[in-house]
Write the structure tokens for this entry.
Amino acid sequence: MGSITKCLFPAAGLGTRFLPATKEIPKEMLPLIDRPIIHYGVEEAVNSGCSDVVFVTGRGKRAIEDYFDRSIELENILLERGQKELYDMVVAVSEMARFAYVRQSEPLGLGHAVLCGEQFCESGFFGVILPDDVMIADTPVLRQLVELHERLGGSVVALEEVSPGEVSRYGIARVEPQEDGVYRILDLIEKPSLNEAPSRLAVVGRYLLSPRIFHHLHNLRPGSGGELQLTDAIKSLLGEEVVWGLRYNGLRLDCGTKEGWFKATVTMALENGTLREALFSLLRQRGLMDV
Ligand code: G1P
């Protein structure tokens, strides 16, 4: 039992919900205020103790590699112009962690994406962050999973109670309460109908997984939507190792849809003095706000 140092980011999805914006730009690189969406996830991994970040990418995702790499030409120009603060900001991005990339050549599902990272993550427990879910939390959500793992061992998934209308969008857990906010996972069903759903506790974008998961990923058969599902591999892992569910403390901003991304942008703007004022002043001008 110990801390984790590696975090895997599945980032091979086509981003069709954001077309045409994502025709040439990966959806993970769409901005949330002043940083690409994926930057927030990497920051969370680093603040949770990870020093190695593995991106599972695909065609058209090179902008992610360039973003987390040095940008010598830009750095030199900023230095020549004496813009030291911007220079430091740009260099800091490339120094957040050690970055590695592996390609998922076919879109066979989230389970397959994680399996693509096997060579980097097979040596110990590792984190998985789905970058569409940006988490705002005092203690980074992945760190909360790590702390539970350090205390109780085993794998950990982040849980959130969703509305009945939403259960069919998530992996849903059957659980046994263990302690406040902590559950032992007894079963998992990927995208169940409301009738099939064993609870309203959904697995959301953060996992801390045992390396034994790779054995189960290798033996997977297509599941929901004909894809190789991470949920099914975790369900199979339950047969040999304990998996905990943690109702995390924090706010999830789902940037996977246009509406979610817009709400996330406004939520973040409200946290920023200048942008908050700009938003309020616009609403006043439009007669949508009185004070
Ligand atoms: C994936 C997982 C699902 C999980 C969800 C969280 O689904 O398969 O179990 O609940 O992420 O966002 P996707 O959103 O890729 O369809």
User: Anything to note?
Assistant: The longest strand covers residues 171-179. The first helix runs from residue 37 to 47.
